[in-house]
Design a protein that fits this description.
Layout: E1 3-5, E2 18-20, H1 22-28, H2 33-56, E3 60-65, H3 71-78, E4 88-95, H4 118-121, E5 125-129, E6 145-151, H5 162-172, E7 173-184, H6 203-211, E8 215-223, H7 226-234, H8 241-250, H9 253-261, E9 270-276
Parallel strand pairs: 3-4, 3-6, 4-5, 6-7
Antiparallel strand pairs: 1-2, 7-9, 8-9
């Protein structure tokens, strides 16, 4: 497995602490749908940051729930060579794990406090270690953020703890601001969950929760089981079998599960939700 599962020293509400080991996956060639999908999310968020900055004509103030190893900022810094405050005016990341305050050892000289990393200072970034199930309040002024995102966080805590911090995201997001949220898409039974998941929301269940606050711009699947894909195609939605075969000729099985999921969010394993604050 490419996930890092580490028990928290303090964990009052039995949340799960897991990060996808993207760095090791790259070295080992462990490109399963989970790893590929994580990378595609980081790149999509990077693109959204750039697009929002261009649309507004200025760098954007952003916030991330479950920041982990700051892959969006790393991607902006390396893949897009975004430096200083060209796109990001300020960044605030929240995570339950104190380990996120330590720099990756291969990124700078042997690791150390990430707050001392020059590349992070280029984004005017800060990190807060905080268990949102204990304290969902975000240390930010009202309507201060242009773009907030959270990838693969919701499923690691009990469902009653999610709405309070979604309310906080709503409070701090500016009118017209952007939100991007990804989480597994469950059928509602919540049986046979992965060991690092606490609760997976159903498609309509999460849709209703999100639309209580924000306008839904789009929702896409991020990866899907091949049998579910074939069934959805047989039901007459989306691509034909010939088009599916063409995709299969272009992509390997793991990439195919990610690319084809886009058109079938309701039956995908995982969904990405893009929303706007009215």
């Amino acid at each position: 497995m490419a996930s890092i599962r580490k028990k928290l020293t303090v964990n009052e509400n039995d949340s799960k602490n897991t990060r996808m080991d993207i760095a090791s996956a790259g070295v080992l060639g462990n490109w399963r749908p989970d790893e590929l999908t994580h990378i595609s999310r980081f790149d999509k968020i990077s693109t959204l940051c750039i697009e929002e900055s261009n649309e507004l004509g200025r760098p954007v103030d952003v916030l991330e729930i479950g920041c982990g190893e700051l892959w969006v900022l790393r991607n902006l810094y390396k893949a897009y060579t975004v430096k200083k405050s060209d796109v990001i005016a300020s960044y605030h990341g929240f995570d339950i794990d104190p380990a996120v305050t330590q720099e990756l050892p291969w990124w700078s000289n042997g690791g150390g406090e990430i707050s001392e990393s020059q590349w992070l200072k280029n984004f005017n970034a800060r990190i807060t270690v905080q268990d949102l199930t204990v304290n969902p309040k975000l240390d930010e002024p009202d309507e201060s953020k242009d773009f907030c995102w959270s990838t693969e966080v919701i499923e690691h805590m009990k469902p009653e703890f999610v709405p309070p911090w979604l309310d906080e995201l709503d409070r701090i997001t500016k009118p017209g601001g952007l939100l991007y949220i990804t989480t597994p898409n469950h059928d509602g039974s919540n049986d046979k969950l992965p060991e690092d998941h606490v609760y997976e929301w159903g498609f309509e269940e999460l849709k209703n929760e999100l639309e209580r606050r924000w306008e839904l711009q789009s929702v896409v699947g991020t990866f899907i089981q091949i049998p579910k894909l074939r069934k959805a195609m047989r039901d007459g939605k989306g691509w034909t079998e010939e088009q599916f075969e063409a995709l299969q000729n272009r992509y390997g099985r793991q990439f195919l599960r990610m690319v084809s999921a886009v058109f079938y969010p309701e039956v995908s394993n995982n969904c990405a939700w893009i929303l706007r604050k009215p």
